[in-house]
Amino acid sequence: MDLNSDAMLVSLRIAAWSGRLYDRAASTHVAVHHDASTSAGRYNKRLLPKDAFAALTATVSRARTAHYEQTLPWDDKGARLLTVANYERYTELMDGLCEKMVRERARFVEDYEDNIERARLDLGRLFRIGDYPSSAALKSKFSIRYRISAVPDADHFIARLASDDTERVKRDIESQVEERLNGAVGDLYRRLGEAVERVSDRLREDGDGKPLVFRNSMIENIRDLVDVVPRLNIFGDGELARLCEQVKERIASVEPDALRPSRTFDPAARRRVKRDADALMEQFAGYFGEAAEAPRAAA
Questions:
Q1: Helix count (H) and strand count (E) of the chain?
Q2: What pTM was computed for the model?
Q3: Which among 31, 62, 154, 185 could disulfide-bond with 36, CB atoms 3.0 to 4.6 Å apart, if both were Cys?
């Protein structure tokens, strides 16, 4: 595997104005009224009605979720590993969300003055028009951007060193890269295992023997996962591919309505999926946390 030709790093940058502001005067008033220290609490105003941010908040949340779902962990500085195999899908999703943010931001700005008037009523004497940024300034307060860069290799760093100990430094860098890659693939085992565990847990019965609530999202999430895992399987790990295919066949292929009381409820299918999920959980047991060493051998 050539990491530089098979993968890249991607960083996500999100700007989102909270619409909240610390009010020192209100905080002091509350403290004095209750005979408390001024350091005992803070009063943070919501400058606009909560529903004014709903669409923007949903888009930001979806962007963060998509970014993590479509990439692998890499370092603690914000960069994540994006495989070439998943580049097209990642950019399709993120470009769509970037465009959606632009549309939602324009709608937010369009409604801004009306929402300020609503806030004037909500805040009463706490309202101060000077607390509000201009409509023009709002354009820089909401954005979604991603940046793609190459994965640095050991030679990239060694070239900058003027040291006789370059071989040791190179080995250390290569060891760190290997550790990150194994952690990245181990993350895929964890994602699949946790998704199967959630399905297994929801297929239990309550204390009265009635099936627990089972929502469509349980299966939809599994389907999304078995779709992306093969594209993120950077080592071509055979065991991961085998487990992913089993999850796809035994769980993702089942319709949610067959697993819960409905017109198409199939008690036999529910029992089978529960058994399959439990059996898969045993197979995933060795791949959680620090125990996930199989990818190293596959590399």
A1: 11, 6
A2: 0.82
A3: 31
